[in-house]
Amino acid sequence: MACGSRRVTIQLVDEEAGPGTRGPKPFRGQRYEAIRAACLDEGILFCDPYFPAGPDALGYDELGPDSEKAKGVEWLRPHEFCAEPQFICEDMSRTDVCQGRLGNCWFLAAAASLTLYPRLLCRVVPPGQGFQGGYAGVFHFQLWQFGRWVDVVVDDRLPVRDGKLMFVRSDQRNEFWAPLLEKAYAKLHGSYEVMRGGHMNEAFVDFTGGVGEVLYLRRDTPGLFSALRHALAKESLVGATALSDRGEYRTEDGLVKGHAYSVTGTYKVSLGFTKVRLLRLRNPWGRVEWTGAWSDSCPRWDALPAECRDTLLVKKEDGEFWMGLEDFVRCFNTVQVCSLSPEVLGPSPAGGGWHIHTFQGRWVRGFNSGGSQPGNETFWTNPQFRLTLLEPDEEEDDDEEGPWGGWGAAGAWGPARGGRIPKCTVLLSLIQRNRRRLRAQGLTYLTVGFHVFQIPEELLGLWDSPRSRALLPGLLRADRSPFCARRDVSRRCRLRPGHYLVVPSAARAGDEADFTLRVFSERRHTAVEIDDVISADLHALLVPYVPLELGLEQLFQELAGEEEALSAPQLQTLLSIALEPVPGGHLAL
Length: 589
What we know:
By secondary structure, the protein is an alpha+beta fold. 19% of the residues lie in helices and 26% in strands.
């Protein structure tokens, strides 16, 4: 800064490097190896001070301290109620995950899908842990949280009632990696009860750092079977949900409405002159299976060659079953797919590398929470991100057998529209941060989403001028996401090369929440937050002493959260309050 300058500039940069470029951050500052070594030196078993084994860890309402469901619960280590506990018995498999008395089928279905890909599972469940040599009552797991991986340490005291685990268990009763993973997730979010109810994509994303997408099924959904087959081949995590407006209930054909299932395989069989497309699904309960066509006891299997039957059919009440594609579309409402993050996928097939930008932000009432209606004047106060798409995708055949066919700009499954006009595929993901953790305070997920507007070339020169705000209402909308009360809202857009404005917002003006916005593409793009340069009066920043009173420290903790990091709007809020007593103190974005 020049000596005669009257202003100071603080530049906040986005996390362009993407997720996973740094090592996992120890959650609560707890380092697994250090804790384990200290316990072994002292000859004690670890007891976690940040997630004590007691009523508060169970929950706050139905599992609260005085609730009926919490009565008679003991917290026991596996060796206290199991003769020969194992962390992993041989190999981990999807049958290791069986649901208990907690309504978290969304989490368990995702965990079962994760077992299909050992290298992904080993990231979440680090190897080398067990109950034999070096056992100290401490285990750890790695989960992705809003831009980076965190390492979560837990002790092995588990909630038990009547000698049985209350929550998730393995089909092999002496195996405990799944109950301990469930406990780590509960610790990360505050209690077991906050895990009640959710969407598989939440857990998919937290297990991989990938991007979740939701497809609402229709009878005429083209290319569905091929898309699912390609997704599984690319190690994407896939699940399906049979929605219900009256909770979980079992239908006559054995399916459970209001329940989440893992999609674990696809297969084509020949029945006479007909090709039948089959999907393999698994109920995380580990029991209760489909009883319709192509179920375990269906006579249609008898018409297939013995070799095919031996390969596909397992007549066992393990929660896993086959069903035809037509029945699948008729019975299920949504498919949830998590495409793996660039760090997991490695170099792109085109050889050009992956491109990702990650931004952290917050909607603040009265400042930048303007609602979701572009016609309202307050809409343009929402956070804004300028996206420039530099290169179109390589030309591909537009047949329905394409791997995804594009969940295109209209949200339809099938070939992207627009003929041979060069377009870019960009995946946008908006995540509400730490919202599940606030359930105990009565808060739920806000309804959120985003709009994408095209910026004409002739306006670019005016974009950083005072006139830019007046130009915003005249922009043409190029795409938009659905607005949903979910943690993750994503959209795969097909856009021409050019300049765009991405505006994430809560549906209702004034709603406050932290968010993460991610931009993915295989071709080059640039992305920058508008107004991410903070200009402040130099005299205000050179005041000899500004007391950091308790209230200001508390405000920092509220704004920064677990990450101990502030977005541009959050920093503005904090500094504005800190400088409030200073005459002429002013901070503007």
